[in-house]
Amino acid sequence: MKPAAFRYHAPKTVDEAVALLAEVAAEDGRILAGGQSLVPTMAFRLARPGHLVDINGVAALNRLTVADGKLCVGACVRHAAFHRPVCDGPLGKLLTDVVRHIAHYPIRNRGTFCGSLAHADPASEWCLVLVALDGEVLAKSARGERVIAAREFFKGIMTTALRDDELLVEARLPILAAGTRCGFYEFSRRAGDFALAAAVGIYRLDGEKIVAPRLAVGGAEVNPRRIAEAERALEGAAPGDTAFRAAAAAATAAIAPMEDIINSAEFRRDLVLAVTRRALERAAES
Ligand SMILES: Cc1cc2nc3c(=O)[nH]c(=O)nc-3n(C[C@H](O)[C@H](O)[C@H](O)COP(=O)(O)OP(=O)(O)OC[C@H]3O[C@@H](n4cnc5c(N)ncnc54)[C@H](O)[C@@H]3O)c2cc1C
After folding, report:
1. Is residue 112 within 6 Å of ligand 1 at its C-beta?
2. 72 CA from centroid of ligand 1 (Å)
3. If 0-12 CB within 10 Å is exposed, 13-18 middle and 19+ buried, where does residue 96 land?
4. For the chain, is the Cβ count within 10 Å smaller at the N or the C terminus?
5. 3: number of CA atoms within 13 Å, CB side?
6. Which residues in 179-190 are b (16+ Cβ under 10 Å) and which e?
7. pLDDT digits (tens, 9 = 90+) for 115-172
8. Can you give the pLDDT at residue 1?
9. Cβ atoms within 10 A of the Cβ of 207, count?
10. If you measure from the C-alpha of residue 195 to the centroid of ligand 1, how many angstroms do you get, rounded to a whole number?
11. What one-character DSSP code corresponds to residue 78?
Protein backbone atom coordinates (compact mmCIF):
# COMPACT_ATOMS: atom_id res chain seq x y z
CA MET A 1 0.00 0.00 0.00
CA LYS A 2 1.00 3.62 -0.38
CA PRO A 3 0.70 6.25 2.34
CA ALA A 4 -2.36 8.48 2.50
CA ALA A 5 -1.81 12.01 1.14
CA PHE A 6 0.16 14.43 3.35
CA ARG A 7 1.84 17.82 3.03
CA TYR A 8 5.62 17.83 3.22
CA HIS A 9 7.63 20.59 4.95
CA ALA A 10 11.42 20.93 4.96
CA PRO A 11 12.57 23.48 7.56
CA LYS A 12 16.22 24.54 7.71
CA THR A 13 16.38 25.65 11.33
CA VAL A 14 15.08 24.41 14.68
CA ASP A 15 12.95 27.56 15.06
CA GLU A 16 11.35 26.96 11.65
CA ALA A 17 10.71 23.32 12.57
CA VAL A 18 8.95 24.13 15.85
CA ALA A 19 6.97 26.97 14.24
CA LEU A 20 5.75 24.56 11.57
CA LEU A 21 4.96 21.90 14.16
CA ALA A 22 2.89 24.43 16.13
CA GLU A 23 0.84 25.06 12.96
CA VAL A 24 0.29 21.46 11.92
CA ALA A 25 0.26 19.48 15.21
CA ALA A 26 -3.53 19.67 15.37
CA GLU A 27 -3.76 17.92 11.97
CA ASP A 28 -1.57 15.04 13.19
CA GLY A 29 1.53 16.81 11.87
CA ARG A 30 4.59 14.70 12.69
CA ILE A 31 8.34 15.02 12.70
CA LEU A 32 10.06 12.90 10.05
CA ALA A 33 13.54 11.86 11.21
CA GLY A 34 15.01 8.61 9.82
CA GLY A 35 11.57 7.43 8.72
CA GLN A 36 12.41 3.83 9.66
CA SER A 37 9.40 3.46 11.96
CA LEU A 38 7.08 6.21 10.71
CA VAL A 39 7.19 5.46 6.99
CA PRO A 40 6.31 1.73 7.30
CA THR A 41 3.34 2.60 9.53
CA MET A 42 2.23 5.19 6.94
CA ALA A 43 2.62 2.65 4.14
CA PHE A 44 0.31 0.29 6.07
CA ARG A 45 -1.96 3.27 6.78
CA LEU A 46 -1.68 2.63 10.50
CA ALA A 47 -0.59 6.29 10.64
CA ARG A 48 -2.09 8.98 8.41
CA PRO A 49 -0.34 12.21 9.36
CA GLY A 50 -1.71 15.24 7.53
CA HIS A 51 1.75 16.87 7.52
CA LEU A 52 5.36 15.72 7.78
CA VAL A 53 7.97 18.13 9.13
CA ASP A 54 11.23 16.68 7.78
CA ILE A 55 14.12 17.68 10.07
CA ASN A 56 16.85 16.08 7.95
CA GLY A 57 17.82 19.47 6.49
CA VAL A 58 18.33 21.10 9.90
CA ALA A 59 22.13 21.06 10.17
CA ALA A 60 22.10 22.08 13.86
CA LEU A 61 20.39 18.79 14.75
CA ASN A 62 23.15 16.65 13.25
CA ARG A 63 25.57 17.12 16.14
CA LEU A 64 27.23 14.91 18.71
CA THR A 65 28.94 16.93 21.40
CA VAL A 66 30.21 16.54 24.96
CA ALA A 67 29.17 19.39 27.30
CA ASP A 68 28.96 19.61 31.10
CA GLY A 69 29.88 15.96 31.52
CA LYS A 70 27.15 14.80 29.14
CA LEU A 71 27.12 13.33 25.66
CA CYS A 72 24.55 15.32 23.67
CA VAL A 73 23.02 13.45 20.74
CA GLY A 74 21.21 15.72 18.27
CA ALA A 75 17.92 14.70 16.71
CA CYS A 76 19.43 13.81 13.32
CA VAL A 77 22.31 11.66 14.61
CA ARG A 78 21.87 8.21 13.04
CA HIS A 79 22.24 4.89 14.84
CA ALA A 80 25.28 4.22 12.61
CA ALA A 81 27.20 7.09 14.22
CA PHE A 82 27.72 4.75 17.19
CA HIS A 83 29.41 1.98 15.20
CA ARG A 84 32.64 3.56 16.49
CA PRO A 85 33.08 5.09 19.95
CA VAL A 86 31.70 8.64 19.93
CA CYS A 87 33.40 9.53 23.21
CA ASP A 88 36.28 8.23 25.31
CA GLY A 89 35.83 5.73 28.10
CA PRO A 90 33.13 3.24 29.07
CA LEU A 91 30.17 5.17 27.59
CA GLY A 92 31.58 5.19 24.04
CA LYS A 93 32.33 1.46 24.34
CA LEU A 94 28.86 0.64 25.75
CA LEU A 95 27.15 2.45 22.87
CA THR A 96 29.20 0.53 20.26
CA ASP A 97 28.26 -2.74 22.01
CA VAL A 98 24.57 -1.82 21.94
CA VAL A 99 24.20 -0.37 18.43
CA ARG A 100 24.98 -3.55 16.51
CA HIS A 101 21.81 -5.11 17.98
CA ILE A 102 19.56 -2.41 16.47
CA ALA A 103 17.82 -3.63 13.32
CA HIS A 104 20.01 -4.08 10.21
CA TYR A 105 22.79 -2.02 8.68
CA PRO A 106 20.64 -0.05 6.15
CA ILE A 107 18.16 0.82 8.92
CA ARG A 108 20.98 1.93 11.21
CA ASN A 109 22.20 4.23 8.42
CA ARG A 110 18.91 6.17 8.38
CA GLY A 111 17.21 5.68 11.75
CA THR A 112 18.09 8.12 14.51
CA PHE A 113 18.88 7.79 18.21
CA CYS A 114 16.28 10.44 19.13
CA GLY A 115 13.71 8.97 16.71
CA SER A 116 13.96 5.73 18.70
CA LEU A 117 13.32 7.64 21.93
CA ALA A 118 10.33 9.50 20.46
CA HIS A 119 8.93 6.27 19.00
CA ALA A 120 9.34 4.52 22.41
CA ASP A 121 9.10 0.91 21.33
CA PRO A 122 9.27 -1.19 24.55
CA ALA A 123 12.21 -3.13 23.09
CA SER A 124 14.21 -0.15 21.85
CA GLU A 125 17.85 -0.46 22.87
CA TRP A 126 18.38 3.31 23.04
CA CYS A 127 15.35 3.76 25.33
CA LEU A 128 16.90 1.15 27.64
CA VAL A 129 20.26 2.91 27.61
CA LEU A 130 18.65 6.31 28.35
CA VAL A 131 16.83 4.83 31.34
CA ALA A 132 19.81 2.81 32.63
CA LEU A 133 21.96 5.94 32.67
CA ASP A 134 19.27 8.32 33.93
CA GLY A 135 19.74 10.47 30.85
CA GLU A 136 17.46 13.29 29.80
CA VAL A 137 16.01 14.85 26.66
CA LEU A 138 15.62 18.45 25.56
CA ALA A 139 12.18 19.19 24.08
CA LYS A 140 11.39 22.41 22.26
CA SER A 141 8.17 23.96 20.99
CA ALA A 142 7.12 27.46 19.92
CA ARG A 143 6.16 27.92 23.60
CA GLY A 144 9.68 27.26 24.94
CA GLU A 145 12.07 24.51 26.01
CA ARG A 146 12.01 21.91 28.75
CA VAL A 147 14.30 19.14 29.93
CA ILE A 148 12.62 15.80 30.63
CA ALA A 149 14.36 13.16 32.77
CA ALA A 150 14.36 9.61 31.39
CA ARG A 151 12.25 8.34 34.29
CA GLU A 152 9.55 10.90 33.37
CA PHE A 153 9.77 10.46 29.62
CA PHE A 154 8.33 7.01 28.85
CA LYS A 155 4.60 6.75 29.50
CA GLY A 156 3.62 3.38 28.03
CA ILE A 157 3.92 1.46 24.77
CA MET A 158 4.99 3.96 22.09
CA THR A 159 3.89 6.81 24.34
CA THR A 160 6.11 9.55 25.76
CA ALA A 161 5.83 12.81 27.66
CA LEU A 162 6.48 14.74 24.40
CA ARG A 163 3.57 17.00 23.47
CA ASP A 164 2.27 17.01 19.90
CA ASP A 165 3.96 20.34 19.14
CA GLU A 166 7.32 19.44 20.73
CA LEU A 167 10.50 18.57 18.87
CA LEU A 168 12.94 16.31 20.69
CA VAL A 169 16.05 18.42 20.03
CA GLU A 170 18.66 16.23 21.71
CA ALA A 171 19.21 13.40 24.16
CA ARG A 172 21.84 13.69 26.89
CA LEU A 173 23.73 10.80 28.48
CA PRO A 174 26.12 11.21 31.43
CA ILE A 175 29.75 10.46 30.59
CA LEU A 176 30.85 7.45 32.64
CA ALA A 177 34.01 7.65 34.75
CA ALA A 178 37.01 5.56 33.74
CA GLY A 179 36.82 2.16 35.39
CA THR A 180 33.00 1.98 35.28
CA ARG A 181 31.99 -1.55 34.31
CA CYS A 182 29.22 -1.78 31.66
CA GLY A 183 27.55 -4.73 30.02
CA PHE A 184 24.65 -5.18 27.60
CA TYR A 185 22.86 -8.36 26.61
CA GLU A 186 19.71 -8.99 24.59
CA PHE A 187 17.80 -11.96 23.28
CA SER A 188 16.01 -11.79 19.93
CA ARG A 189 14.89 -14.66 17.74
CA ARG A 190 16.91 -13.52 14.69
CA ALA A 191 19.68 -10.98 14.24
CA GLY A 192 18.04 -7.60 13.62
CA ASP A 193 14.71 -8.47 15.25
CA PHE A 194 13.43 -6.47 18.18
CA ALA A 195 14.62 -7.97 21.48
CA LEU A 196 12.25 -10.09 23.55
CA ALA A 197 14.26 -9.01 26.60
CA ALA A 198 17.41 -6.96 27.09
CA ALA A 199 19.44 -5.67 30.01
CA VAL A 200 22.13 -3.15 30.84
CA GLY A 201 24.30 -3.65 33.93
CA ILE A 202 26.62 -0.92 35.20
CA TYR A 203 28.72 -0.63 38.36
CA ARG A 204 31.95 0.69 39.82
CA LEU A 205 34.33 -1.06 42.17
CA ASP A 206 35.45 0.15 45.57
CA GLY A 207 38.20 -2.34 46.34
CA GLU A 208 36.49 -5.68 45.89
CA LYS A 209 32.96 -4.33 46.32
CA ILE A 210 30.32 -3.18 43.84
CA VAL A 211 29.25 0.45 44.28
CA ALA A 212 26.62 2.53 42.46
CA PRO A 213 25.10 -0.44 40.63
CA ARG A 214 22.55 0.07 37.88
CA LEU A 215 20.53 -2.72 36.36
CA ALA A 216 17.88 -1.87 33.78
CA VAL A 217 15.62 -4.19 31.81
CA GLY A 218 13.99 -3.51 28.43
CA GLY A 219 11.66 -5.40 26.12
CA ALA A 220 9.91 -7.22 28.95
CA GLU A 221 7.53 -4.53 30.23
CA VAL A 222 5.82 -1.63 28.45
CA ASN A 223 8.84 0.59 29.05
CA PRO A 224 12.41 -0.09 30.13
CA ARG A 225 13.20 0.64 33.77
CA ARG A 226 15.87 0.32 36.42
CA ILE A 227 15.12 -2.48 38.87
CA ALA A 228 15.81 -1.24 42.39
CA GLU A 229 15.48 -4.73 43.92
CA ALA A 230 18.28 -6.05 41.71
CA GLU A 231 20.48 -3.01 42.38
CA ARG A 232 20.10 -3.57 46.12
CA ALA A 233 21.27 -7.16 45.65
CA LEU A 234 24.43 -5.89 43.96
CA GLU A 235 25.34 -2.96 46.23
CA GLY A 236 28.35 -3.85 48.37
CA ALA A 237 28.61 -7.40 47.02
CA ALA A 238 31.71 -8.89 45.41
CA PRO A 239 31.25 -9.06 41.62
CA GLY A 240 30.80 -12.65 40.53
CA ASP A 241 28.40 -15.47 40.01
CA THR A 242 26.71 -15.34 43.43
CA ALA A 243 25.93 -11.62 43.28
CA PHE A 244 24.94 -11.69 39.61
CA ARG A 245 22.57 -14.63 40.10
CA ALA A 246 21.01 -12.94 43.13
CA ALA A 247 20.48 -9.72 41.17
CA ALA A 248 19.04 -11.61 38.19
CA ALA A 249 16.63 -13.45 40.49
CA ALA A 250 15.59 -10.17 42.10
CA ALA A 251 15.00 -8.55 38.68
CA THR A 252 12.99 -11.54 37.53
CA ALA A 253 10.79 -11.43 40.62
CA ALA A 254 10.25 -7.67 40.28
CA ILE A 255 9.02 -7.47 36.70
CA ALA A 256 5.53 -7.94 35.31
CA PRO A 257 6.32 -9.22 31.81
CA MET A 258 4.17 -8.52 28.76
CA GLU A 259 2.80 -11.41 26.80
CA ASP A 260 1.80 -11.70 23.18
CA ILE A 261 0.48 -14.33 20.83
CA ILE A 262 3.90 -16.02 20.62
CA ASN A 263 5.66 -15.24 23.88
CA SER A 264 4.10 -15.99 27.25
CA ALA A 265 4.84 -13.89 30.32
CA GLU A 266 6.64 -16.88 31.88
CA PHE A 267 8.93 -17.21 28.85
CA ARG A 268 9.81 -13.52 29.05
CA ARG A 269 10.42 -13.87 32.79
CA ASP A 270 12.91 -16.67 32.07
CA LEU A 271 14.58 -14.49 29.46
CA VAL A 272 14.96 -11.67 31.98
CA LEU A 273 16.73 -14.08 34.33
CA ALA A 274 19.21 -14.90 31.57
CA VAL A 275 19.77 -11.43 30.06
CA THR A 276 20.29 -9.68 33.39
CA ARG A 277 22.90 -12.21 34.55
CA ARG A 278 24.69 -12.10 31.20
CA ALA A 279 24.68 -8.28 31.10
CA LEU A 280 26.37 -8.29 34.52
CA GLU A 281 28.88 -10.92 33.39
CA ARG A 282 29.72 -8.75 30.41
CA ALA A 283 30.14 -5.77 32.72
CA ALA A 284 32.61 -7.78 34.80
CA GLU A 285 34.59 -8.62 31.64
CA SER A 286 34.62 -5.00 30.40
C1 LIG B 1 12.93 -4.11 10.12
C2 LIG B 1 13.14 -3.16 11.25
C3 LIG B 1 13.79 -3.60 12.38
C4 LIG B 1 13.99 -2.73 13.46
N5 LIG B 1 14.63 -3.20 14.57
C6 LIG B 1 14.85 -2.36 15.60
C7 LIG B 1 15.51 -2.81 16.78
O8 LIG B 1 15.95 -3.96 16.89
N9 LIG B 1 15.67 -1.93 17.80
C10 LIG B 1 15.21 -0.63 17.71
O11 LIG B 1 15.37 0.14 18.67
N12 LIG B 1 14.61 -0.18 16.60
C13 LIG B 1 14.41 -1.01 15.56
N14 LIG B 1 13.78 -0.52 14.44
C15 LIG B 1 13.30 0.88 14.43
C16 LIG B 1 14.42 1.84 14.04
O17 LIG B 1 15.42 1.83 15.05
C18 LIG B 1 13.94 3.29 13.88
O19 LIG B 1 15.01 3.96 13.32
C20 LIG B 1 13.53 4.03 15.13
O21 LIG B 1 12.52 3.35 15.85
C22 LIG B 1 12.90 5.40 14.81
O23 LIG B 1 13.86 6.30 14.40
P24 LIG B 1 13.66 7.14 13.08
O25 LIG B 1 14.70 8.20 13.09
O26 LIG B 1 13.62 6.23 11.91
O27 LIG B 1 12.23 7.84 13.35
P28 LIG B 1 10.97 8.08 12.40
O29 LIG B 1 10.52 6.81 11.81
O30 LIG B 1 11.26 9.22 11.47
O31 LIG B 1 9.92 8.59 13.50
C32 LIG B 1 9.36 7.69 14.44
C33 LIG B 1 8.37 8.47 15.32
O34 LIG B 1 9.07 9.36 16.19
C35 LIG B 1 8.71 10.72 15.91
N36 LIG B 1 9.97 11.49 15.95
C37 LIG B 1 11.15 11.13 15.36
N38 LIG B 1 12.11 12.02 15.67
C39 LIG B 1 11.51 12.95 16.47
C40 LIG B 1 12.00 14.12 17.14
N41 LIG B 1 13.29 14.50 17.04
N42 LIG B 1 11.12 14.85 17.87
C43 LIG B 1 9.82 14.47 17.99
N44 LIG B 1 9.32 13.36 17.40
C45 LIG B 1 10.16 12.62 16.65
C46 LIG B 1 8.07 10.71 14.53
O47 LIG B 1 7.16 11.77 14.36
C48 LIG B 1 7.40 9.35 14.54
O49 LIG B 1 6.18 9.42 15.23
C50 LIG B 1 13.56 -1.37 13.36
C51 LIG B 1 12.95 -0.90 12.19
C52 LIG B 1 12.73 -1.78 11.15
C53 LIG B 1 12.07 -1.27 9.89
Report:
1. yes
2. 18
3. middle
4. N
5. 16
6. ebbbbbbbbeee
7. 999 999 999 999 999 999 999 999 999 999 999 999 999 999 999 999 999 999 999 9
8. 73
9. 6
10. 15
11. B
